[in-house]
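Input:
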Amino acid sequence: MSNEELESQLSAMFDDELPATECELLARRLARDEQLRTRWGHYAAIGACIRGQPGVQLETALASKVSAAVKQEATATGVPAVGRQQRRFFNPWVTSIAGFASAAAVAALAILWMRNEGPARLAQNPPPPQPVAASTPVTVAPAPAQQLLAAAQPDPARLGSQPRRQSREPDSYVTPAAASEAPMLVPPTELANYIVAHSVYSGPLTRRNALSALVGGDAAVPQVNVQPAAVKVVTDK
Amino acid sequence: MTADASDLSLVQRVQRGDKGAFDVLVLKYQHKVVKLVMRYVRNPAEAEDIAQDAFIKAYRALPQFRGDSAFYTWLYRIAINTAKNAVVARDRNPVNFDLDLSDNEESYEMQGRLKDSETPEALVLTDEIRTTVNAAIANLPDDLRTAIVLRELEGLSYEEIAATMDCPVGTVRSRIFRAREAIDGRLREVFEGGLGRAEELG
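Output:
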């Protein structure tokens, strides 16, 4: 590209009359070429003179001061503002820690809600009595609690001798049948199933504590009339 | 062709960390911004300080600029707000600006600093630039003079100038470029060639 062609483009760019694609290339050159920038500044001064603006100078102190201040800004921050903003939002450590914290908070709230809200609602809306076993009251919690705790113990021989199955399905687990059709008993039961099903991954003490707490919570539920055979142990051996 | 494409390409370069591109924007708009600020303050030195603040604020806010409006429209708003705030601040703290005209040496120096851009040398230089530009325009051929005046004074686009002068847009672009080159050439002769009247006066 000849010098004259380049300067012609510069003049058109100054007037916002250059196609965007050519602007890209010229802007890059303009930002680095001191001579072109001086000419650009002169175009601005010529325009200001024609418009009769006061105090027109070819090389102004204002431009130098702003340039120096902008350089200091960059030195002070180290990285451009745009990059800083993106790094702040896309830091993988921050993202993963925040995600983990959110998930833990949601899980804790869900457990608290199930433990506190379930029995309370049940007390307010007791389930309708079963027509068949209406005369046989049964306390639900104690019996499955023993079986739950027994089934939750990992079998060291089996764990040690057999390779872990690909499906990560435990060898056996206990599913206490619902004492009634009341929906309020479902959350603790599901939670117990979950804990037992994942017993391979938790320590025995933690698991026992969790199950004890669940059993204790179930025991606090008022007695209801249910079918005696509603509680059963299921193993898949 | 996109409106404001040249400013946008420079803004994008600044957003990618190219500080030189911001210098180019300052060179282009400094006269307009100072003139704008002088609607609020009469002192040219104060106007320059405010314009400087406005440019620095614009630089800091540039990462948030998305090109929804023209760059100058955006800069215009920043400059207006900066000027208004400066006027309010000055009214609250008049002691910072109304200097005591005593014989105190410090006050004398401060007064000199504030009026730095209005020194006799600066005023003469400004006058000399204006005279040189006007003389160069007067010496231009009619078609070049008409094109540059329609562009700079009337603010017409190339298409509107082409319609006015009954010629192709490419011819308008060429005429404006040649007019600028002729005027700039004369300015260089006077102020950079070592033979200018400004230096003789200095």
